[in-house]
Amino acid sequence: MAERVEQEEIFSQVLRAGRRTYFFDVRSTKADDYYLTITESKKFTHDDGSFHYQKHKIYLYKEDFAEFNDMLKAATDYIVNEKGQEVISERHQKDYKKEEVVSETETTTTESFTDVSFDDI
After folding, report:
1. Which of these, 39, 64, 67, lies nearest to 54 by C-alpha position?
2. Which residues make Cβ contacts (< 8 Å) with residue 27, sequence separation at least 6?
3. Exposed end of the chain (fewer CB within 10 Å): N or C?
4. Which of helix, strand or coil describes residue 93?
5. pTM for this structure?
6. Considering its fold, how many domains does the chain have in total?
7. Which sign, positive or negative, has the C-alpha torsion 118, 112, 96, 79?
8. Cβ–Cβ contacts within 10 Å for residue 25, how many?
9. Which tens digit of pLDDT belongs to each residue from 1-25?
10. CATH of residue 37
11. Which residues contact 111 (CB under 8 A, 6 or more apart)?
């Protein structure tokens, strides 16, 4: 099976998102028309400190742009309408500080409390 040869990039944008990176690349077909590739690259680190990248690619052609755009917007709107703007996955980050409501006008983080020894009182 012949390996697909990528055409030269005409336009490119990069979105870095934590351990994921998204590449949006405009390329040219043999007939000199344009298409879009969207690549997700995820970095994986091994126990020994070495790492590798896993990539997934989508090829999107002009005849599919309008419908793809409509479905992407519908899906993202649905998520925001159902779950709001908060990024819940941030709660799983090791430096996440949970906010607690102390009263209706105050919030604090659990890490902001000072350890007090009752021997000092």
Report:
1. 39
2. 6, 7, 8, 9, 10, 34, 35, 36, 37
3. N
4. coil
5. 0.62
6. 1
7. positive
8. 19
9. 555 555 567 999 999 998 899 999 9
10. 3.10.450.700
11. 97
